[in-house]
């Protein structure tokens, strides 16, 4: 088959399995993203590759160019997913729960990071890349356990119907902050791994650039986005002109954060916040974007995440034991950190949310 035919087949399979299993998960009162991830696991080396490797290689050939095409679609999809998450974020609610979100983000990164570093220092040498690199390996392990996947978090919050509740706004805001903090930690860890010391200049530029980006976006950027969408709505006659401008704004802001040195999803999320405040964002446009993102791009991205998972390595007892230990440390560390942060931040889980949508 040609590369184009294989790409279309891959997309069709990921959408079909993701939507089917996502529907089943929702009927079991679980987030649909679990079904989309599971769909990728079933189509990947963990299941299909284990029982019918020739078919798995035919459907998902390990060719660089072929993988790059489907991964490009998946990555663009996650940018759009964070755009949608930003559009559904209410800054008034975020300001009200801002202290709790900041405390949860800081504690939610710090506690699992420390737990991961401690865990790494007690790992057997046989599981390390080399005994003399234990510190760097421990730092990478702590970083991996500290960062939350804001993509999965946003899907879970949406599927559970919490986007317009205080708890949902706290979760999303803290997840975005944790992701941003995580990239700073990654920069520091990479500097240690490469040079044996921290490149303070690059880390400082990344932090300063992120701060300036947020400041400019929420002041000058807010006015610019409003005027651009308004001008497009008033003067352009072509079909879906406003949607095209929304996608252009999202792409530009995602690129800015990429060049700053943090994830593109931060730029897409902030773009969504600014676009969501526009009075020209009609319900029709919102539904068009939502249908495209959740119906097409989300199953492809989360299916790709499942495809990259190879559970067959857990047949090795040492790796299985390591995995169980990491899951336990990550779960306890993240839950403990979030609970500690919420307590310090004054977030009362027992208080009913006045912003809840019935």
Helix content: over 70%
Question: Please, what is the average pLDDT?
Answer: 82
Output the structural class.
mainly alpha
Q: SSE order, as H and E?
A: HHHHHHHHHHHHHHH
Sheet with the most strands, sense and barrel status: none
Number of helices: 15
What low-confidence regions span 5 or more consecutive residues with pLDDT below 50?
352-358
* Whole-angstrom Rg: 21 Å
Total beta strand runs: 0
- Portion of residues in beta strands equals under 5%
What is the end-to-end distance?
50 Å
**C-alpha geometry:** globular
Summarize the structure.
The protein is mainly alpha-helical and 358 residues long. 77% of the residues lie in helices and 0% in strands. The protein is built from 15 helices and no strands.
Ordered list of secondary-structure elements with their pairings:
Blueprint: H1 3-27, H2 32-43, H3 48-51, H4 53-59, H5 64-87, H6 91-96, H7 98-121, H8 134-146, H9 150-159, H10 166-195, H11 200-235, H12 241-260, H13 264-276, H14 283-307, H15 317-344
Helix pairs in contact: 1-2, 1-14, 2-14, 5-9, 5-13, 5-14, 7-8, 7-10, 7-15, 8-10, 9-10, 11-12, 11-13, 12-13
Walkthrough of the structure:
Helices cover 77% and strands 0% of the residues. It is an all-alpha fold and 358 residues long. The protein has a domain at 97-193 and 316-358. The longest helix is centred in the middle third of the chain and has 36 residues, at 200-235. The protein is globular, with a radius of gyration of 21 Å. Residues 352-358 have low confidence and may be disordered.
């Amino acid at each position: 088959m040609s590369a184009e035919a294989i790409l279309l087949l891959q997309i069709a399979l990921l959408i079909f399995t993701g939507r089917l299993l996502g529907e089943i998960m929702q009927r079991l009162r679980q987030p649909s993203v679990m079904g989309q991830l599971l769909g990728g696991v079933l189509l990947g080396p963990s299941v299909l590759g284990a029982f019918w490797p020739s078919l798995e290689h035919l459907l998902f050939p390990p060719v660089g160019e072929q993988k790059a095409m489907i991964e490009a679609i998946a990555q663009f999809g996650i940018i759009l997913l964070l755009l949608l998450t930003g559009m559904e974020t209410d800054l008034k609610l975020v300001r009200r729960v801002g202290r709790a979100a900041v405390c949860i983000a800081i504690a939610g990164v710090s506690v699992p990071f420390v737990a991961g570093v401690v865990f790494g220092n007690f790992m057997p040498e046989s599981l390390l890349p080399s005994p003399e690199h234990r510190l760097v390996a421990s730092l990478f392990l702590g970083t991996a356990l500290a960062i939350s996947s804001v993509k999965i978090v946003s899907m879970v919050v949406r599927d559970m119907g919490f986007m317009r509740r205080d708890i949902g706004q706290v979760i999303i805001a803290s997840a975005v902050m944790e992701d941003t903090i995580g990239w700073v930690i990654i920069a520091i860890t990479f500097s240690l791994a490469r040079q044996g010391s921290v490149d303070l200049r690059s880390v400082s530029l990344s932090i300063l650039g992120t701060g300036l980006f947020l400041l400019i976006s929420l002041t000058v950027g807010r006015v610019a986005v409003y005027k651009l969408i308004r001008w497009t709505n008033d003067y352009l006659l072509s079909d879906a002109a406003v949607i095209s401008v929304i996608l252009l704004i999202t792409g530009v802001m995602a690129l800015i954060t990429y060049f700053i040195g943090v994830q593109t999803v931060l730029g897409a999320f902030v773009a969504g916040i600014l676009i969501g405040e526009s009075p020209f964002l009609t319900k029709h446009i919102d539904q068009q974007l939502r249908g495209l993102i959740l119906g097409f791009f989300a199953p492809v991205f989360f299916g790709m995440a499942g495809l990259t998972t190879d559970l067959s390595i857990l047949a090795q007892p040492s790796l299985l034991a390591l995995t169980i230990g990491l899951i336990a440390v990550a779960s306890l560390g993240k839950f403990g950190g979030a609970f500690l942060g919420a307590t310090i931040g004054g977030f009362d889980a027992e208080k009913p949310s006045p912003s809840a949508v019935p």
